[in-house]
Design goal:
The chain contains five helices and three strands, in the order E-H-H-E-E-H-H-H. It is mainly alpha-helical.
């Protein structure tokens, strides 16, 4: 995966536009979802101030589904990478519940 140092969030209006474009591009729900997510990542991933991907198709060609999911989760969490040694999937509330049992 290419180096990505910054994820810039999109406005709600831009997200809606990308979703509409993806909806029109395919009939299959999975295809629409992948196309939309690829378009979002193409517009949000940056390295040294420049976009990492030219377009959503390039995202789909270069990233796995798991890599895309990880970046989208990071974007949803504010765009910051997890701290060194921190598990990004750690659920503190669930941990507290399990610890009490």
């Amino acid at each position: 995966m290419r180096a990505i140092e910054e994820l810039r969030p999109l406005t709600a209006g831009r997200l809606l536009t990308l979703w509409r474009e993806a909806r029109e591009a395919g009939e299959d729900a999975l295809e629409r979802t992948l196309r939309c997510n690829g378009a979002v990542l193409a517009e949000t991933c940056f390295f040294q101030g420049a976009p990492v991907f030219e377009n959503g198709e390039q995202v789909l060609e270069e990233l796995t589904g798991m890599e895309m999911e990880g970046l989208l989760r990071r974007l949803a969490a504010g765009g910051q990478p997890p701290a060194a040694g921190e598990n990004p999937a750690f659920d503190e509330a669930r941990f507290d519940t399990l610890r009490k049992e």
